[in-house]
Amino acid sequence: MGENQSSRTHIKEMAEKLGLSAGTVSVVLNGRGDSVRIAKETQKRILELAKEMNYQPNIYARRLRKAGQEQAPIIIAVFWRKDNLNSRLGKFLAGLYESIVKRGCNVEIMVQPYEPGEFKEHLHQIHSSRCSGAMIGGLTEEEQVCLEEQDYDIPVILVGRNTEKFHCVLMDNYRAGEKCASAIDSSRIKTAAVVSFHKSSRAARLLEVGFTMACQDKGITVREDWKLRLERSTYEIGYHAVEELMARIPFPSAWMVLDSRLAAGMLAACQDNGIVIPRDLNLIFFEDSELLKYNKPSLTSVDVPVADMAEKALDILLLINENKVDIPIKRELLPVYHMRESTGKL
Amino acid sequence: MGENQSSRTHIKEMAEKLGLSAGTVSVVLNGRGDSVRIAKETQKRILELAKEMNYQPNIYARRLRKAGQEQAPIIIAVFWRKDNLNSRLGKFLAGLYESIVKRGCNVEIMVQPYEPGEFKEHLHQIHSSRCSGAMIGGLTEEEQVCLEEQDYDIPVILVGRNTEKFHCVLMDNYRAGEKCASAIDSSRIKTAAVVSFHKSSRAARLLEVGFTMACQDKGITVREDWKLRLERSTYEIGYHAVEELMARIPFPSAWMVLDSRLAAGMLAACQDNGIVIPRDLNLIFFEDSELLKYNKPSLTSVDVPVADMAEKALDILLLINENKVDIPIKRELLPVYHMRESTGKL
DNA sequence: CTGAAAGCGCTTACAG
DNA sequence: CTGAAAGCGCTTACAG
């Protein structure tokens, strides 16, 4: 037992095989063989064996060796859903990096992608022998439940998810919904629709409620049957959503859409059906994209403040590490707001 | 001297202050105080001092301790330009992760953003005591020169840059240029323009040459004065570029554009000037984006195969680590190709 | 030219 | 209830 665990070659092993000391092997492997005047022949034997046994140095041992010369860094493990790597990870890392520089602290960022639904395979990585803290984005509810079943000896910070057990940074979804409503010109517009998804998260529902409530306050009607539930986010589904809404009488004249990837399809449908934005329709998208910004007319959006979230997550992590506070910290941030032509304002 | 270097608190230090042994302190700090039956009072003193001195465990020491129980991983340092974090890092990491899973190897990814132009500050991180290999994206020419002045004891792989000294993975720019030309319907189109930048990289120039040569072969004329050099990539500059090209007589009827961020401005200008795509004009963009895909008409693009590059970079790194080959390996990959309506084909 | 020892910071049996 | 020792894998003076 225990054989397959430490299958990697070590210096000591090689030294024994060669009848040399570990020091000699180490020196040669580090290219200092000549300067320490190890026999050419010995060097050759060592290098050959290293190649043969596929020697890989243990980075941790090397770094430990350097302790005293250099500060040991704080290591942050960032867990991110594989299918989200493209969208927001870049912004998150950028925000994190900026904050690290600003604070002048010695931090290393480790990124660990995970398969959607399979986060549990990484639970063992959340441990003080691996990193100083974990930031986790994109968890499903089941994954979160699973995560919460255990305790961890380092701070865990959920990104974009609410939790009572761990720390978290998230957008104030209710406020985000309100913001969307405030983008509508209520002097002209009296009816509004919501386009969201069938399997909506708690976050999405809060957004919807915030929007609906704020609309009510402004005298804008949001009828129950104007709340569209789509299956997925594709061009075609966006296109059909417009046709469906057009069948409703009266035709709601402002739409809040909970996903910007539908935008292309929806815009095409509007064009094909002679709906002019913002004359006939106010459009507000959740999530920003170039598509929205450069469309003619440009489209208003409300987005998650990812960089901000990274900054706050770092704040929490450093605070916890310094004070060993044990109550969970929650930071709710305001959404980012891009007012554009699609809501009739410049 | 050496005081500010190791300012961090260590267990030994705390043990001395408290008149205890390191073992006792360690046990309590790991929450095993009760199970090992350390006096409550002692535990309290230890925890208080830890808080006061802001004790941070040395992750490397902890991980080394675990050696034998768990495999030491290969650590890949990914250096990425801060201002590119949003665009291609996600795809690169996704590609890297996929390849890691496919190969079933034990790899950790460390991401180190750097300020554009300031890569030299990270040179010391390219060392076997920090990681098993470095992948570097987005270097400027000066940065690359600076990097090449030194030797490193781990494999260095440049992403998207050519080099004789290190390994590299890059797109075959000449072939990419040819691909762009092949998107043009030469039975109908006889003239082509190139829109690029004033300060163009060697890569961009190769792309241009590949395009020009392939056009010649197809009987398409690319006149010198149809080669536009723009200052930067913005909406306005894209808009003006179209006006400039319209002033040329004859008006070139296919354009290869070396950057997709100009797209929005160019499309707006075409629309404003009654230029109909693809009837009057074939458009091919380098770099893909949603904007191109969902435009009406959808726009053809040629893009860097980032995920592929990540895979090949991993291949190289593992190969080098196994065989200690010392000749630089270069992998040139074919671009990714999105044929769309803007070149008149579906 | 090479070996033996010390030590990086930490944890874990073990002894008392 | 606590201490002393051993050891994780590696490197670096030092001795010979």
What does this structure look like?
The structure is a homodimer of 346-residue chains. Chain A contains 12 helices and 12 strands. Chain A has helices at residues 11-18, 22-29, 40-53, 59-66, 89-103, 141-148, 173-182, 202-217, 235-247, 263-272, 290-294, 306-323, and strands at 74-81, 107-114, 133-137, 156-159, 167-171, 192-197, 227-230, 254-257, 282-286, 300-303, 330-333, 336-338. The first copy, chain A, has a 6-stranded parallel beta sheet. A 6-stranded mixed beta sheet of chain A has the order 7-6-8-9-10-12, sandwiched between helices. The radius of gyration of chain A is 28 Å and the shape is elongated. Chains A and B meet through helix 3, helix 4, helix 5, strand 2 and helix 10 of A and helix 3, helix 4, helix 5, strand 2 and helix 10 of B. Strand 2 (107-114) of chain A pairs antiparallel with strand 2 (107-114) of chain B, so a sheet runs across the interface. Chain A binds a DNA duplex (16 and 16 nucleotides) through residues 10-12, 20-24, 26-27, 30, 36-39, 42, 57-58, 60-69, 72, 129.
